[in-house]
Amino acid sequence: MVPFTRRTLLHSVCGLATVLAGCSGVFEGSGESAHTPSRSDGSSPSSAGSVSDPDAVVTRVDTDRQPVWLDDEDGRPTESPRSRPTESEIIDTAAKADRVSVVDDADRSEIRSFLDGTDFDTETVYVQTVTIEECFRLTLCQIRWAADNITTDYGRVSRPYDEPCTAGNKIYAVWVIRIPDTVNADDISSYSSSIGGNSCERQRAGAEGGSESGSEAALSNDRRTQTGGEQA
């Protein structure tokens, strides 16, 4: 596939892990305000920060290969969707954003518009691809970043009974998340993700009460070898 360029679409911008949900994308935002990390001056990036409801778009795709990838002239990745539960990529420059490719079945225009609406002088985009069970749904609760790692937290709920799905069938969900900070991809050595067995809202309520019900799974990917949030 020939990747989109930043000049192709200039639309307005919209808006693991072992299980997720759904045969089609579900986009829901929250009224919760996002925390933007402070800076010592107008240009120096902070070394760490977190956002509990980041700007993001998400797409769900039932396909045999990774639906969003960084084009390096080798074409679309050919590995099995079950070979790795998560894939992560940091988009830290406009030139790198131009190389992002998206399959036809995914929300290409929304992803492209989201990338075009990012100011890479002050922001970074984190793309995380997760293999999920289609009878569940994940909500992005939080993203955290430090000098050498990025962490995402998700909440998991079952899909509504009237939404058709096949038990055990796995699909791809791709989050394209805007970090309100400059993160250098070369400095990041590891990624990790956690999935709570409840929605983001219930996880936060449990944490405030001193305990959290539900199971939690964690994944990591070492590069050296809600009340709200976007849902998929």
UniProtKB/TrEMBL annotation:
Biased composition (Low complexity): 37-58, 190-199
Residue ranges of the region described as Disordered: 29-89, 190-232
Compositional bias segments (type: Basic and acidic residues): 75-87
Domain of life: Archaea
Name the record gives this protein: Uncharacterized protein
Organism for this UniProt entry: Haloarcula argentinensis
